[in-house]
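#struct-pred

JT: dropping the chains for the assembly here, can someone run the whole complex?
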Amino acid sequence: MTSPVISVRAVDMVFRVGKGEAVALEDANLEVMDGDFVSLIGPSGCGKTTLMRLVADLVEPTSGEITVAGKTPRQAREDREYGYVFQAPVLYEWRTVIANVTLPLEIMGHPKARRRERARELLKMVGLERFERSYPWQLSGGMQQRVSIARALAFDPKLLLMDEPFGALDEITRETMNLELLRLWQETRKTVVFVTHSIAEAVFLSSRIVVMTPRPGRIREVIEVDLPYPRTAETRESERFFELTTQVREALRGAPHVGGDAPSAAEQPLQRTAGY
Amino acid sequence: MAPARQWFRRAWPVVCVVAVLLALMYPVALLLGMPLARQRMENLSNWERASVAALPVAEADAGGSRLPLGAGPTVDAVVSGLQRGSAVLVRGEEVLATGVSVEGTEAVLPAPLPGPAVRLGPAAGPVEGPDPDLSGRVYALPDATPPGAPLYLDGSLLVRGSLSATERADGVRTSFTVPGLADAVAGSPDAAVAIVGDAPVVEGAGFERAGDVVTFARAPAFNAPVRLITGDYASLDEDAGTIVLAEPAEDAPRIALEHVAVVEGLTGAYDGENRDFRLQHVPLLERDPGRRLFVGGRELAGGDERPAERVDGVQRSFTFASDHGIVTAEGRQLVEDLDYQRDGNVVTFATPPTRNAALRQHPDYLVSDASTGTITLAAPPAPGEPVWALSYTYYSRPGCGATAFECFLSMPQHPVPFPNWIAERIVPFFTAYPFSDSRNVIRATLYTAAGTLVSLAFGTLIGVLLAVLFVRVRPFERALLPWVIASQTIPVIALVPVLVAVLGNMGVTVQTSLVPAAIVGAYIAFFPVTVGTVTGLRSVDPLALDLMKAYAASPLQSFLKLRFPAAVPYLFTSLKLGAAAALVGALVAEVESNNRLGLGYAIIGQVQAGDVADVWILLVISALLGIGLVSLVGLLQRLVAPWERTGLGGADGAG
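RK: done, full complex below.
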């Protein structure tokens, strides 16, 4: 472990809401090391997504300092240091599955033959090689999200930012996807930042869990997960898994839990795409 | 089997809707057409006229108290009226007997006829021509034959009669239709005789006959009247007094110098006071120069007299030509000694008649009610003095048919035609001209389709460029959008003449050019394309934009790979709207630029020609053309944007 891949120092994020202000993030500090699988967990409105978007340079912080791979977020974005997986698959409906996966490569100007080869490789990895000619609407939600993960991996970024990628999936599909993601992570040894609502998911996947609290969004606690690898379906039934989930739950409970599902001002912009 | 069933499943709602619409056209056609048909039927000016004339006795040597009247349509028509009233027997203008009744085709006299029924005059002179077929047929009447004098051949009355062809002779046509001919000559065993101009032509040598249609060996000369003899004879030349007989005769026909005839006696009370009498054949013509009425042996003067003075609202005394008669004002009978005083031929009113009132004096009688055939005499006839009609004209029947429905069927123009009439027109309509002729409908349709497609291409180009400009450079939208909207409020009808004038000045032959249609169509079509494309370009999911940002895509890449493809479904939706609108624009442009090659001109031409069924066919053609163009856009969409799930619209594309 050398220098952190992501470093967030004293970051504040304030959104203007009408004439008032909503504090989405207050004094956030976080370091993510190379090869880490970090989960951000917390109730709605705690600034998880905001933190991700700050790292990805999709928004700019009100104050504080962020570095990604030792660069400013903007530089990191322009150097394509990360792959981003959104809550929704955000596939381009006019492109076939394979064309969606090759999209980032097209934009980066890779030669055509190589990008198809790479896309096939990735589709095989996510188990969708038979669907490369399909259009997104012909796939189920889980398959679409897998295409979206393949697309994020297309240009082989060292850092993967995943914003509740499995949020819209049913429990059974989600657990399968968790296993697949874990396998992928172990194969590629990427650094992953993962936003989730699910305690079990966070414990099962992560090497570290960042527990956040809302209003204003703050990082409350960072919990190390020492479950052994390879983690399998049995891992979920182990004693240690149960202890860790309890620990996370208690950390979350310590936070004043306000209005469970009511979207906070900070998350409002994303709510528009909830129907995706 | 399966594809057929699938096709049926898709097609049956369409078939049902079309069938219902077609079925609905019948009641609608009747609803709109019957009032017009009724009007047509009730309008007396459309009625056919028939005349009532004195019936001469059919046998020259008839005597006793039963006189034969002969047979034939004209005799039947008069006799039908005589049977209702009492007939009068006259010789010339002298009344021989009243109270004559008609039984079958015989007049029954109350007392035997004193003296001969007919005094025959000289025989007509035979006219020999070069044509042997005509020998014994053409005769010249003796000089000083009174007009209308009956002709007798071997003591039997000859009935005059001929029917005219409906077509006009144009010097080329040889076939002519004579309505009613087949019935009229059905009983005659001999060859029929036609009269072309003033020359008789005999069947066989001169023409062939089939039903009501006659076909001449030589085309009749331009404007020559074509008639066929249906009675015993017809007049060849009235002035020369030549006649032609239907059947050749060995003896020449003779004219009657004096003959007995049965005429219609007017009904009414003959009590010396009643002045109202009725004619049997109604409705009467209000003004009928051929009406000859008699009281006893005195003929009544028809018509009316106008006063010598102007009716100025002040003048009270008026001078008429006669010193007797019925005075009317605005058609209302006035009463002597109450409304006016008479002093000879000067009539003085108690109060002056209103200015410009129609003041008339009817010296002998006036038609007081034409519909019931009532006339009012100026003076009552003496008791026992008969009132009789030598001849008059009446409206026999509506020209369009016996019932309102027949009149509806025979209307030259229907507001809405029956679908089967349209169907009957389809084949002749499409095959009227060869494809190489610019009047060919299919050719015109293709021409208009080409104009619309060109206009659509231009419209799309302009629309998309404007939309891109609007989305990329906001100030342009603020500056130009009001003008773009204003452009659509200008009526195309007003725009086209200006455009045509400008193009004409630029040297474009607008009558044969696609340019006006292309410009107008593009002018109409670009607007929906602009609006649709702007909406499409702005419809992009914000997350999809974030994705582009995360890939650090350039603005151009982001436009080409995200915004534009996202706008394509919107573009096609608006293109479908634009296609239909552009077609209308192209049609209007064709009409106003007098472009005879296109469908628009054909529609206007048929509307002006009044051929409603053809207009309907053209309407259906343009509708089908519109559907075709929109389907073509849809097909293009399926080729260009195969990811689309739905046939219509693109707004629900994101799923």
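JT: nice. The CA atoms of residues 480 and 486 of chain B lie 10 Å apart. Chain B touches chain A through 25 residues (CB under 8 Å).
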